[in-house]
Structures are given as structure tokens and as C-alpha cells.
Design a protein that fits this description.
This protein has one domain (6-135): Nucleotidyltransferases  domain 2 (Four Helix Bundle (Hemerythrin (Met), subunit A), Up-down Bundle). The protein is 76% helix and 0% strand. The protein has helices at residues 6-24, 30-58, 65-69, 73-82, 88-106, 110-116, 120-136.
């Protein structure tokens, strides 16, 4: 099944641009704060969208849509690894991203944002890979 990844791709492009601008900004500037907030927000949106799209892709492997809908976020990624949609290394990284996202949702402090930012280069690459996998479809 080929999944429409246009929104996910657009969000990833937005994240990439915000991250580039963040790296070009002075740390104590308003621009830095603005781009840091944009990076964190896009990170959260992409993570949620990725889980939703993977659920669609996993529907072919389950007996019902309800069975897929009952999966937790982390289980979605584990099943994606089991069915070859993601490598096992990628699954582990996505689980780290999810743990980090859960922290950002509850603590919007500076320290937490600074812990998220180092994840961005790998996250952006993982999203690009996910877009390729979902966009080209997979064999059932």
C-alpha cells in the first residue's frame, strides 16, 4: 500500500529549515528562541504524524483496523520493525524520539529543548527514510 506522505514531507522540510535557521542564530537572541520553538513543535507534529501513517501501513498485517488502532505508539514502531518497514536500529531511535517527545510535552523548559536539539540531524534523516518507505509502498 502506498501512503500519502505529502504532509509529513512538508513538515520535515519545515523542520529542516527551522533547524538550519536555529543553527545560524545567536543563542541569546529572539530569533534563536523562535526557531528553537519551531523545531520542537515540528518534532512533535512529525512524531505524531509518523505514528498515524505507520498505523495505516500496518493495517495490511493485522486482521482488523481495530487491532491496529489499539496499538500503543511504541508498539506501532515495534511492529513496523517486525514487518520490515523500519530497521531494528531505526525502531530503537524512534523509541528514543518518542521518549524525548513525551518529556517535551510535559516540560517546556530550556534544558529540555537543548536535549532535543542534538537529536534533530538523525531525526530528520529517519523521517526522510520513513517517507521513502511509506511513499513507495510495501509488499504484504
Amino acid at each position: 500500500m502506498v501512503i500519502d506522505t505529502q504532509f509529513l514531507d512538508r513538515c520535515n522540510q519545515t523542520l529542516l529549515e527551522a533547524y538550519k535557521k536555529l543553527l545560524q542564530s545567536e543563542e541569546n537572541s529572539i530569533q534563536y528562541d523562535l526557531y528553537r520553538s519551531a523545531v520542537i513543535k515540528e518534532f512533535e507534529v512529525i512524531l505524531e504524524q509518523s505514528g498515524k501513517l505507520l498505523k495505516k501501513a500496518l493495517a495490511d498485517y493485522f486482521h482488523s483496523k481495530k487491532a491496529v488502532d489499539r496499538l500503543t505508539f511504541k508498539d506501532v514502531f515495534r511492529h513496523a520493525g517486525n514487518h520490515g518497514l523500519l530497521s531494528l536500529d531505526a525502531v530503537e531511535r524512534w523509541l528514543v524520539y518518542r521518549d524525548n517527545r513525551n518529556l517535551t510535552a510535559h516540560d517546556c523548559g530550556f534544558d529540555l529543548a537543548e536535549k532535543t536539539l542534538p537529536l534533530m540531524p538523525g531525526f530528520i534523516k529517519d523521517v526522510e527514510q520513513l517517507i521513502k518507505v511509506l511513499g513507495k509502498g510495501h509488499d504484504t
